[in-house]
Specification:
The protein contains four helices and 24 strands. By secondary structure, it is mainly beta. The longest helix has 7 residues.
Length: 357
Protein backbone atom coordinates (compact mmCIF):
# COMPACT_ATOMS: atom_id res chain seq x y z
CA UNK A 1 0.00 0.00 0.00
CA UNK A 2 1.06 3.61 -0.37
CA UNK A 3 0.64 6.88 1.39
CA UNK A 4 0.75 10.11 -0.55
CA UNK A 5 2.57 13.38 -0.02
CA UNK A 6 0.17 15.92 -1.47
CA UNK A 7 0.66 19.29 -3.06
CA UNK A 8 -2.30 21.57 -3.58
CA UNK A 9 -2.25 23.03 -7.08
CA UNK A 10 -3.72 26.43 -6.30
CA UNK A 11 -1.92 29.75 -6.49
CA UNK A 12 -3.01 32.39 -4.00
CA UNK A 13 -3.56 35.73 -5.66
CA UNK A 14 -2.66 38.70 -3.51
CA UNK A 15 -5.66 40.58 -2.22
CA UNK A 16 -8.13 37.72 -2.71
CA UNK A 17 -10.31 36.86 0.31
CA UNK A 18 -9.23 33.19 0.33
CA UNK A 19 -5.85 31.66 1.09
CA UNK A 20 -5.03 27.95 0.79
CA UNK A 21 -1.71 26.74 2.20
CA UNK A 22 -0.32 23.31 2.87
CA UNK A 23 0.51 19.89 1.52
CA UNK A 24 -1.44 16.82 2.55
CA UNK A 25 -3.57 18.72 5.06
CA UNK A 26 -4.10 22.25 3.73
CA UNK A 27 -5.14 25.21 5.86
CA UNK A 28 -7.90 27.23 4.18
CA UNK A 29 -8.43 30.79 5.39
CA UNK A 30 -11.09 33.31 4.41
CA UNK A 31 -11.78 36.85 5.57
CA UNK A 32 -15.30 37.26 6.98
CA UNK A 33 -17.38 40.22 8.08
CA UNK A 34 -16.87 41.52 11.60
CA UNK A 35 -20.46 40.74 12.62
CA UNK A 36 -20.08 37.17 11.38
CA UNK A 37 -16.88 36.78 13.38
CA UNK A 38 -18.66 38.02 16.49
CA UNK A 39 -21.61 35.66 15.86
CA UNK A 40 -19.54 32.48 15.66
CA UNK A 41 -16.85 33.33 18.22
CA UNK A 42 -16.82 30.67 20.93
CA UNK A 43 -19.12 28.41 18.88
CA UNK A 44 -16.95 27.48 15.92
CA UNK A 45 -17.84 23.79 15.96
CA UNK A 46 -21.55 24.57 15.68
CA UNK A 47 -21.59 27.65 13.45
CA UNK A 48 -18.42 28.01 11.35
CA UNK A 49 -19.57 25.34 8.90
CA UNK A 50 -22.32 27.66 7.68
CA UNK A 51 -19.63 30.10 6.49
CA UNK A 52 -16.75 27.94 5.27
CA UNK A 53 -16.68 24.35 4.08
CA UNK A 54 -14.59 21.97 1.97
CA UNK A 55 -16.27 19.39 -0.27
CA UNK A 56 -15.06 16.51 -2.39
CA UNK A 57 -16.00 16.58 -6.08
CA UNK A 58 -17.45 13.22 -7.17
CA UNK A 59 -18.26 12.64 -10.86
CA UNK A 60 -18.09 16.36 -11.46
CA UNK A 61 -20.56 17.27 -8.70
CA UNK A 62 -20.01 18.61 -5.21
CA UNK A 63 -20.56 15.99 -2.46
CA UNK A 64 -23.48 16.69 -0.13
CA UNK A 65 -21.40 16.18 3.04
CA UNK A 66 -18.38 18.39 3.81
CA UNK A 67 -14.91 17.11 4.66
CA UNK A 68 -14.40 16.75 8.43
CA UNK A 69 -12.01 19.25 9.98
CA UNK A 70 -11.20 21.85 12.62
CA UNK A 71 -11.95 25.57 12.63
CA UNK A 72 -10.04 28.47 14.17
CA UNK A 73 -10.75 32.19 14.27
CA UNK A 74 -8.25 35.06 14.53
CA UNK A 75 -9.96 38.41 14.26
CA UNK A 76 -11.83 38.25 10.95
CA UNK A 77 -9.72 35.38 9.61
CA UNK A 78 -11.65 32.09 9.69
CA UNK A 79 -9.51 29.01 8.99
CA UNK A 80 -10.36 25.38 8.26
CA UNK A 81 -7.98 22.42 8.41
CA UNK A 82 -9.02 18.86 7.41
CA UNK A 83 -8.50 16.24 10.09
CA UNK A 84 -7.09 13.73 7.61
CA UNK A 85 -5.04 13.89 4.36
CA UNK A 86 -7.21 14.63 1.34
CA UNK A 87 -6.00 11.88 -0.96
CA UNK A 88 -4.12 11.66 -4.24
CA UNK A 89 -5.25 13.16 -7.58
CA UNK A 90 -8.62 14.27 -6.25
CA UNK A 91 -10.70 17.39 -6.79
CA UNK A 92 -12.16 19.53 -4.00
CA UNK A 93 -14.23 22.67 -3.76
CA UNK A 94 -14.06 25.35 -1.09
CA UNK A 95 -17.39 27.09 -0.41
CA UNK A 96 -17.50 30.24 1.69
CA UNK A 97 -19.88 33.10 2.40
CA UNK A 98 -18.96 36.30 0.63
CA UNK A 99 -21.55 38.91 1.53
CA UNK A 100 -25.00 37.60 0.65
CA UNK A 101 -23.78 34.95 -1.77
CA UNK A 102 -21.66 31.82 -1.79
CA UNK A 103 -18.21 31.95 -3.38
CA UNK A 104 -16.42 28.81 -4.53
CA UNK A 105 -12.94 27.72 -5.51
CA UNK A 106 -11.94 24.29 -6.83
CA UNK A 107 -8.50 22.72 -6.64
CA UNK A 108 -6.83 19.38 -7.32
CA UNK A 109 -4.40 17.37 -5.23
CA UNK A 110 -1.42 15.50 -6.64
CA UNK A 111 1.29 13.53 -4.96
CA UNK A 112 4.54 11.72 -4.79
CA UNK A 113 4.17 8.14 -3.58
CA UNK A 114 6.10 6.85 -0.61
CA UNK A 115 5.79 3.49 1.15
CA UNK A 116 3.52 3.10 4.15
CA UNK A 117 1.05 1.64 6.53
CA UNK A 118 -1.56 -1.01 6.80
CA UNK A 119 -4.74 -1.16 4.75
CA UNK A 120 -8.09 -0.12 6.10
CA UNK A 121 -10.24 -2.94 7.41
CA UNK A 122 -13.70 -3.45 8.89
CA UNK A 123 -13.45 -3.57 12.68
CA UNK A 124 -17.02 -4.77 13.17
CA UNK A 125 -20.59 -4.25 12.00
CA UNK A 126 -23.56 -3.29 14.16
CA UNK A 127 -25.80 -4.73 15.44
CA UNK A 128 -23.18 -7.05 16.94
CA UNK A 129 -25.95 -9.29 18.29
CA UNK A 130 -26.25 -12.60 16.47
CA UNK A 131 -30.06 -12.27 16.61
CA UNK A 132 -31.98 -9.21 15.45
CA UNK A 133 -35.70 -8.41 14.90
CA UNK A 134 -36.98 -8.57 11.35
CA UNK A 135 -37.94 -4.87 11.50
CA UNK A 136 -34.38 -3.72 12.24
CA UNK A 137 -33.93 -0.28 10.65
CA UNK A 138 -30.19 0.53 10.72
CA UNK A 139 -26.84 -1.19 10.25
CA UNK A 140 -23.47 0.45 10.93
CA UNK A 141 -20.01 -0.56 9.77
CA UNK A 142 -16.94 0.60 11.72
CA UNK A 143 -13.63 0.86 9.86
CA UNK A 144 -10.11 0.99 11.25
CA UNK A 145 -9.35 4.32 9.55
CA UNK A 146 -11.20 7.22 7.86
CA UNK A 147 -12.95 6.26 4.64
CA UNK A 148 -13.90 8.22 1.54
CA UNK A 149 -16.94 10.38 2.32
CA UNK A 150 -19.24 8.99 -0.36
CA UNK A 151 -23.05 9.15 -0.08
CA UNK A 152 -23.24 6.11 -2.36
CA UNK A 153 -21.12 3.90 -0.12
CA UNK A 154 -24.20 1.73 0.48
CA UNK A 155 -23.52 0.15 -2.92
CA UNK A 156 -20.52 -1.65 -1.41
CA UNK A 157 -22.60 -3.46 1.23
CA UNK A 158 -24.86 -6.39 0.35
CA UNK A 159 -27.25 -8.67 2.24
CA UNK A 160 -27.59 -12.37 1.33
CA UNK A 161 -30.12 -14.91 2.62
CA UNK A 162 -29.24 -18.44 3.77
CA UNK A 163 -29.71 -19.74 0.22
CA UNK A 164 -27.03 -17.38 -1.08
CA UNK A 165 -29.47 -15.02 -2.82
CA UNK A 166 -28.78 -11.30 -2.64
CA UNK A 167 -31.63 -9.22 -1.20
CA UNK A 168 -31.78 -6.42 -3.72
CA UNK A 169 -32.51 -2.77 -2.87
CA UNK A 170 -31.58 -3.44 0.74
CA UNK A 171 -30.74 0.14 1.63
CA UNK A 172 -32.31 3.53 1.37
CA UNK A 173 -30.24 5.03 -1.43
CA UNK A 174 -28.28 7.41 0.73
CA UNK A 175 -25.61 6.60 3.27
CA UNK A 176 -23.74 8.89 5.59
CA UNK A 177 -20.69 8.81 7.86
CA UNK A 178 -20.01 9.36 11.55
CA UNK A 179 -16.88 9.57 13.71
CA UNK A 180 -14.84 11.46 11.11
CA UNK A 181 -15.41 8.91 8.38
CA UNK A 182 -14.89 5.76 10.41
CA UNK A 183 -18.55 4.67 10.80
CA UNK A 184 -20.79 4.04 7.80
CA UNK A 185 -24.52 4.37 8.50
CA UNK A 186 -26.87 2.20 6.41
CA UNK A 187 -30.62 2.64 6.62
CA UNK A 188 -33.13 0.07 5.46
CA UNK A 189 -35.98 1.82 3.63
CA UNK A 190 -38.68 2.56 6.28
CA UNK A 191 -41.27 1.16 3.87
CA UNK A 192 -39.72 -2.27 4.40
CA UNK A 193 -40.12 -1.96 8.17
CA UNK A 194 -43.25 0.05 8.90
CA UNK A 195 -46.69 -1.56 8.87
CA UNK A 196 -49.06 -0.32 6.18
CA UNK A 197 -46.34 0.84 3.78
CA UNK A 198 -45.62 -1.38 0.82
CA UNK A 199 -42.16 -0.80 -0.64
CA UNK A 200 -40.58 -3.93 -2.06
CA UNK A 201 -41.85 -5.90 0.95
CA UNK A 202 -39.86 -6.70 4.14
CA UNK A 203 -36.12 -7.13 3.69
CA UNK A 204 -36.00 -10.09 6.08
CA UNK A 205 -38.09 -13.14 6.87
CA UNK A 206 -38.35 -14.28 10.48
CA UNK A 207 -36.64 -17.55 11.32
CA UNK A 208 -33.85 -17.34 8.71
CA UNK A 209 -30.13 -16.61 8.70
CA UNK A 210 -28.61 -13.77 6.68
CA UNK A 211 -25.16 -12.49 5.87
CA UNK A 212 -23.95 -8.88 5.66
CA UNK A 213 -21.05 -8.47 3.21
CA UNK A 214 -18.85 -5.36 2.92
CA UNK A 215 -17.17 -5.40 -0.49
CA UNK A 216 -13.42 -4.83 -0.45
CA UNK A 217 -13.72 -2.24 -3.24
CA UNK A 218 -14.96 0.42 -0.82
CA UNK A 219 -12.24 3.09 -0.57
CA UNK A 220 -10.53 4.80 2.32
CA UNK A 221 -9.77 8.53 2.45
CA UNK A 222 -6.63 8.01 0.35
CA UNK A 223 -8.47 6.08 -2.35
CA UNK A 224 -7.19 2.65 -1.27
CA UNK A 225 -9.44 -0.41 -1.08
CA UNK A 226 -9.74 -2.99 1.72
CA UNK A 227 -7.55 -6.09 1.71
CA UNK A 228 -10.56 -8.42 1.69
CA UNK A 229 -14.33 -8.62 1.93
CA UNK A 230 -15.92 -8.59 5.39
CA UNK A 231 -18.80 -10.89 6.33
CA UNK A 232 -21.07 -11.05 9.38
CA UNK A 233 -23.83 -13.63 9.90
CA UNK A 234 -27.01 -13.09 11.94
CA UNK A 235 -30.38 -14.69 12.65
CA UNK A 236 -33.65 -12.80 12.18
CA UNK A 237 -36.30 -13.30 14.86
CA UNK A 238 -39.81 -11.82 15.11
CA UNK A 239 -40.75 -8.17 15.08
CA UNK A 240 -39.97 -5.73 17.88
CA UNK A 241 -42.79 -3.32 18.74
CA UNK A 242 -41.72 -2.57 22.33
CA UNK A 243 -39.96 0.52 23.65
CA UNK A 244 -36.63 -0.07 25.42
CA UNK A 245 -35.86 0.90 29.01
CA UNK A 246 -32.56 2.45 30.14
CA UNK A 247 -30.70 2.44 33.46
CA UNK A 248 -27.19 2.98 34.83
CA UNK A 249 -25.19 0.73 37.13
CA UNK A 250 -25.49 2.63 40.42
CA UNK A 251 -23.59 -0.07 42.30
CA UNK A 252 -20.39 0.36 40.32
CA UNK A 253 -20.13 4.13 39.89
CA UNK A 254 -16.53 4.97 38.88
CA UNK A 255 -14.23 6.47 41.49
CA UNK A 256 -12.68 9.94 41.34
CA UNK A 257 -9.16 9.94 39.91
CA UNK A 258 -9.91 6.97 37.65
CA UNK A 259 -11.00 6.55 34.04
CA UNK A 260 -13.16 3.54 34.82
CA UNK A 261 -16.35 3.47 32.72
CA UNK A 262 -19.86 4.40 33.67
CA UNK A 263 -22.04 1.50 32.49
CA UNK A 264 -25.25 2.37 30.64
CA UNK A 265 -27.60 -0.58 30.17
CA UNK A 266 -30.82 -1.19 28.24
CA UNK A 267 -33.57 -3.79 28.35
CA UNK A 268 -32.76 -4.84 24.76
CA UNK A 269 -30.21 -4.34 22.00
CA UNK A 270 -29.82 -0.72 20.95
CA UNK A 271 -28.90 1.05 17.74
CA UNK A 272 -25.17 1.75 18.01
CA UNK A 273 -25.03 5.18 16.36
CA UNK A 274 -28.05 6.53 18.23
CA UNK A 275 -26.36 5.76 21.56
CA UNK A 276 -22.89 7.10 20.75
CA UNK A 277 -24.46 10.26 19.34
CA UNK A 278 -27.25 10.64 21.86
CA UNK A 279 -25.61 9.90 25.23
CA UNK A 280 -23.87 12.88 26.85
CA UNK A 281 -22.32 13.36 30.32
CA UNK A 282 -22.39 16.75 32.09
CA UNK A 283 -20.61 17.81 35.25
CA UNK A 284 -22.07 19.83 38.12
CA UNK A 285 -21.48 23.14 36.28
CA UNK A 286 -23.38 21.95 33.22
CA UNK A 287 -20.23 21.56 31.13
CA UNK A 288 -20.05 18.53 28.86
CA UNK A 289 -17.56 15.82 29.87
CA UNK A 290 -15.74 14.49 26.76
CA UNK A 291 -16.15 10.71 26.68
CA UNK A 292 -15.82 7.76 24.34
CA UNK A 293 -18.60 5.16 24.23
CA UNK A 294 -18.00 1.47 23.58
CA UNK A 295 -20.71 -1.04 22.79
CA UNK A 296 -20.49 -4.41 24.53
CA UNK A 297 -21.42 -7.64 22.68
CA UNK A 298 -25.16 -7.79 22.07
CA UNK A 299 -25.48 -3.97 22.11
CA UNK A 300 -27.37 -3.89 25.43
CA UNK A 301 -24.54 -2.46 27.54
CA UNK A 302 -22.36 0.54 26.77
CA UNK A 303 -19.20 1.63 28.58
CA UNK A 304 -18.86 5.41 28.85
CA UNK A 305 -15.18 6.25 29.37
CA UNK A 306 -14.04 9.82 30.14
CA UNK A 307 -11.16 11.28 28.15
CA UNK A 308 -9.68 12.49 31.45
CA UNK A 309 -9.97 11.16 35.00
CA UNK A 310 -13.27 11.59 36.79
CA UNK A 311 -13.30 14.44 39.28
CA UNK A 312 -15.27 14.41 42.51
CA UNK A 313 -18.79 15.79 42.26
CA UNK A 314 -22.27 15.48 40.80
CA UNK A 315 -22.83 14.41 37.19
CA UNK A 316 -25.73 13.84 34.83
CA UNK A 317 -26.00 11.37 32.00
CA UNK A 318 -28.47 12.69 29.42
CA UNK A 319 -30.01 10.59 26.66
CA UNK A 320 -31.47 12.43 23.70
CA UNK A 321 -34.96 11.42 22.67
CA UNK A 322 -33.50 9.95 19.46
CA UNK A 323 -31.86 7.02 21.26
CA UNK A 324 -33.54 3.88 20.00
CA UNK A 325 -33.39 0.10 19.68
CA UNK A 326 -32.66 -1.99 16.58
CA UNK A 327 -36.18 -1.31 15.27
CA UNK A 328 -36.00 2.48 15.95
CA UNK A 329 -38.37 2.29 18.92
CA UNK A 330 -37.48 5.19 21.21
CA UNK A 331 -37.65 5.11 24.99
CA UNK A 332 -40.63 7.49 24.91
CA UNK A 333 -42.31 6.45 21.65
CA UNK A 334 -42.66 3.45 19.36
CA UNK A 335 -41.42 3.81 15.78
CA UNK A 336 -44.90 3.01 14.44
CA UNK A 337 -46.62 5.80 16.35
CA UNK A 338 -46.79 9.12 14.48
CA UNK A 339 -49.65 10.80 16.36
CA UNK A 340 -48.69 14.44 16.91
CA UNK A 341 -49.44 14.29 20.64
CA UNK A 342 -47.28 11.22 21.07
CA UNK A 343 -44.49 12.81 19.04
CA UNK A 344 -44.37 15.63 21.59
CA UNK A 345 -42.66 13.06 23.82
CA UNK A 346 -39.67 13.28 21.49
CA UNK A 347 -38.78 16.54 23.23
CA UNK A 348 -38.29 14.72 26.54
CA UNK A 349 -34.72 13.76 27.42
CA UNK A 350 -33.90 10.91 29.78
CA UNK A 351 -31.62 12.00 32.64
CA UNK A 352 -29.66 10.01 35.22
CA UNK A 353 -27.86 11.67 38.13
CA UNK A 354 -24.81 10.09 39.74
CA UNK A 355 -22.10 11.15 42.16
CA UNK A 356 -18.39 10.44 41.89
CA UNK A 357 -16.49 10.26 45.19
Amino acid sequence: MIVVLLLVRLHVIAGEPINIKGTSIPVITVTIAGEEAARIKGQLTEKAGSILGLYMIVDGARASVPVSGRYSLAGRKLSFEPIYPLGENMEFEVVWKSGDKDSTRRFNTSGQMTPVVADARVVTAYPTSDTIPYNTLFFHVRFSRPMMNDRQSYKYVQVYDDAGNEREKAWRQKSFWLDSGRVLVLMIHPGRVKNGIHYEGPLFDSGRYYKLVVNKDIKDANGNTLMDNYEQRFFVAGEDRVSPAAFIDNIHIPRAGSTLPLILSFSEGMDYASVIDGAKVYDGTGAIVPCSIESKPGDRRFAIVPDKQWGKGEYKLVLKSAVYDFAANRINRLFEITDSREMEKDKIEIKFSFKVD
